[in-house]
Design brief:
Elements (H helix, E strand, L loop, with lengths): L1 H12 L1 H4 L7 H89 L1
């Protein structure tokens, strides 16, 4: 039993010595296998996490691009609506000025006929 503890101590604390030919116990081999298994699982999880992050980044970039396109489309539409409203306002203003001119000229004609 004492040899198992010594070998385990050497493997844990003096790993450079265990590579030099100290025989390893079945318990140590089991822990080494478990450690390798856990390292492989960690590596797989990291790869999946990186892949998921890339997918999320790509999707968020697509959403950002779409929202920028929607914004520019809405901005263009709003500018068009503003220009159209402004043009219609100017046209109404010109029509009102024209009708005021006609009323003024009619008044002048009526006044000139009376005099």
């Amino acid at each position: 039993m004492r040899a198992i503890f010594v070998n385990a101590h050497i493997a844990r604390k003096h790993s450079y010595i265990s590579d030099m030919g100290v025989s390893s116990s079945p318990v140590h081999n089991h822990y080494r296998a478990e450690t390798e298994k856990l390292h492989n699982e960690i590596k797989t999880l990291k790869e999946r996490l990186n892949q998921t992050e890339r997918v999320i980044r790509n999707e968020s970039d697509k959403l950002l691009d779409n929202s920028e396109k929607d914004y520019s489309r809405n901005t263009s539409k709003n500018e068009y609506d503003f220009s159209r409203d402004r043009f219609q306002g100017q046209r109404r203003y010109q029509e009102d000025i024209g009708s005021l001119k006609n009323m003024l000229f009619d008044e002048i004609r009526v006044s000139s006929y009376i005099n």
